[in-house]
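Slide 14.
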Amino acid sequence: MRPPKGRMLAVSNPTASGGAYRRDMPHIIEALAALGYDVDERSTAGPGDATAFARAAVRDGYDIVCAIGGDGTVNETINGLAGSDVPLAIVPTGTVNVLAIELGIPLDPPDAVQVLDKGSVSWIDLGLAGDRYFALMAGVGMDARTVADVNPMLKKTIKEAAFAIQGVVSYLTHEEPLLRVESAEQTVEGYFAVFGNAANYGGAFGLTPYADMRDGLLDVCVLKDKSFLSTAWYWLAALINSHLSHPKVAYFRTEAARVSAVDPDEEVLVQTDGEVAGKLPLECRVVPRALRVVVP
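Slide 15: predicted structure.
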């Protein structure tokens, strides 16, 4: 099905990628209007704005919502659209734009706009971590700590490399608590867990390489050892998708799992699609066909 024409809400994040696309925003809006859309733009000013804007668009009868920003903006927009019939279009202007990569959407904004003219509307599953939807993954433990601690200026300057640097710092300065992942398939304990709805985790690699956004399942990857050697090997091996062969890594698929800290007094953070989304304990589950999205 072709993307619907009519009223469009464009949700833009002027600070995405450090504001690199701020001057281009009027041109992106003009290009969307040139395709025949009646475009209303809302710019985010803080956390939660994109979700509120998208939720209001569903309520007010908009035909389509376009997220102009990075994965954080897209994730918030998804949380306002999940379960509705209003499709999401994406014009990536963020640091890494992992969901755009996963869906095959061009990373150049003018080319991404043209997907609305030549593409189609498809369905994808979403994950749900507690009450937070995610399209890509939920991470529990060290990566959530990294997301929480990463320096915004470092992220702006060196982009995704900032997460690698902060990850090393977080590992050396923070003791990761033991986690327990319980599902119908198995129970696993470890120090880091990822629930993947998509194959991509970062711009260049995936921790859940067999995940499929349309299979009605989440792929779960758990690192069971927190030694420096195992942790370093895990992340380096993930660059070539060989981490799954390590005896200290558990990998399985499930519809739902409960995640908790073995010591309930320990605080363990959770991130969804690269944004801090809460802490343990929580249930993580798949929501099949929860989002309509415009793809090439």
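Speaker note: The first strand starts at residue 7 and ends at 12.
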